[in-house]
Design goal:
By secondary structure, the protein is α/β, with parallel strands linked by helices. The protein contains 16 helices and 14 strands. It folds into two domains: 199 residues, Rossmann fold (3-Layer(aba) Sandwich); 206 residues, NAD(P)-binding Rossmann-like Domain (Rossmann fold, 3-Layer(aba) Sandwich). Helix content is 40%, strand content 13%. The longest helix has 29 residues.
Length: 450
């Protein structure tokens, strides 16, 4: 099938390249000429494992980028909207969704054949039916149903694993305005064999995405609240507590041969310094705001957000056990990205921690394997120093704060070994064994019993 995708951000570009890998002919649309040129040169503007290789493989063959939305829509059967939906504190901003819907509609005015408009962006329930559909009808002068289809197809992509998640999904949710739309969407995903598909309406599809993200965010905040309680109980360590919880066979099933399966979702049931990224914080807050508009208080999700906002302070509290005054103290921050495998620093717990360190006049050095450029843009030139390696990051540090679970940070014990003066390690992700370095502080560790 021929597909046009409006937006070349994280969702749009990954979706486009992966659909091309599955055999579709894809055109991605963006307003930024330099970004389009870069993509057409086979260079991904985002860091995502496996994306560069797939882009190089399909670029110029069955994948391309353009600034010409009209031409892309007219030359495709499905137009997928994958633009940003930022949260302004009260509701998600739909200006980019509205613009895309209107421009697609204007192009469809001159297209005689049937076309499906598909929302891929994360939007609150009712957006596809009550915002996108009327705008396309108004701009095209056509009627949804007989003239064009409207659908909602949420993405379930983990940053750092997005290519794998798209090519080998655990589910495909198809929210269609009518049966004809749903049939077209089934054809779109025909190359994805043996995957559970759910045919539903757009509102339900929209709600599924928000519910899925809110559940995972709730699991993280629950684990962090338990971790904070463990820190107040003598001789209790949250890692052991959660390990015991994970062994529940309803969470990690035991097969007939005795083999135990450890599902990946149990990683959300581990204490740390909080969640971040472009999805969880925004989506939970948006769902809370949407519930309030409908007269439904969202007290549980309110608590999820409250716990998460406070969690970076636990790292600073652990640091304060060793330094009552941070003025002039050399502090190294390991990890600025909100999670490993990505250069995305949006809503990362590292950001408020670094801001507070700077406010307390600490001398801050940061190291992140891929997110340095994003950190430099965020903090500005000269605000903090940056290291080029783990060894360089640790050199001269009086304290090291581990804030992102990058695998290479597991080498910290050997990097610390042999140093005459051991920095204190504050492990915000519980990556390193607490007895593997000389001075250790970690989330969720209770005091020694008297």
């Amino acid at each position: 099938m021929k597909i046009s995708i409006i937006g070349t951000g994280y969702v749009g570009l990954v979706s486009g390249v992966c659909l091309a890998e599955k055999g579709h002919d894809v055109t991605c649309v963006d307003l930024d000429h330099s970004k389009v040129d870069r993509i057409n040169a086979g260079q991904s503007p985002i860091h995502e494992k496996g994306l560069d290789e797939l882009l190089a493989k399909c670029c110029g063959v069955n994948f391309r980028a353009t600034t010409d939305l009209r031409a892309a829509v007219l030359d495709s059967e499905i137009s997928m909207i994958a633009v940003g939906t930022p949260f302004d504190g009260d509701e998600i901003d739909l200006q980019y969704i509205r613009a895309a819907a209107s421009q697609i509609g204007a192009a469809l005015k001159d297209k005689p054949s049937y076309h499906v408009v598909l929302v891929k962006s994360t939007v609150v329930p009712g957006t596809t039916s009550d915002v996108v559909l009327p705008l396309v009808e108004e701009a095209s002068g056509k009627k949804a149903g007989p003239d064009f289809g409207v659908g909602m197809n949420p993405e379930f992509l983990r940053e750092g694993e997005a290519v794998q998640d798209f090519l080998f999904p655990d589910r495909i949710v198809l929210g269609g305005f009518d049966e004809r739309t749903l049939d077209v969407l089934e054809q779109l995903y025909q190359p994805f064999a043996n995957v559970d598909q759910l045919r539903t309406d757009p509102r339900t599809a929209e709600m599924i995405k928000y519910t899925a993200n809110s559940l995972l965010a709730t699991m993280i905040s629950f684990s962090n609240e338990i971790g904070n309680l463990c820190a107040s109980i003598p001789n209790v360590d949250v890692t052991q507590v959660m390990r015991g919880v994970h062994l529940d066979k309803r969470l990690s099933p035991i097969l007939a041969d005795g083999t135990r399966i450890k599902p990946s979702f149990t990683t959300y049931l581990e204490a740390g310094c909080g969640f971040g990224g472009s999805c969880f914080p925004k989506d939970v807050k948006a769902l809370i705001a949407h519930g309030r508009k409908l007269g439904r208080g969202m007290s549980l999700l309110d608590a999820v957000v409250k716990v998460n906002l406070a969690q970076p302070d636990t790292v600073l509290d652990l640091l304060s056990r060793h330094f009552s005054d941070l003025d002039g103290v050399n502090v190294t921050v390991l990890g600025v990205a909100f999670k490993p495998g990505t250069d995305d620093i949006r809503e990362s717990p590292a950001l408020p921690i670094i801001r507070e360190l700077l406010a307390r006049k600490a001398k801050v050095k940061a190291f992140d394997p891929v997110a340095r450029a994003e950190a430099e843009k965020y903090f500005g030139a000269g605000a903090l120093d940056y290291a080029d390696s783990l060894e360089d990051a640790v050199d001269g540090a009086q304290a090291v704060l581990l804030l992102t679970r990058w695998p290479e940070f597991e080498r910290l014990p050997e990097v610390f070994a042999g140093r005459s003066e051991q920095p204190v390690l504050v492990d915000g992700r519980r990556v390193v064994a607490k007895d593997s370095v000389g001075r250790y502080e970690g989330i969720g560790i209770g005091p020694a019993a008297k």
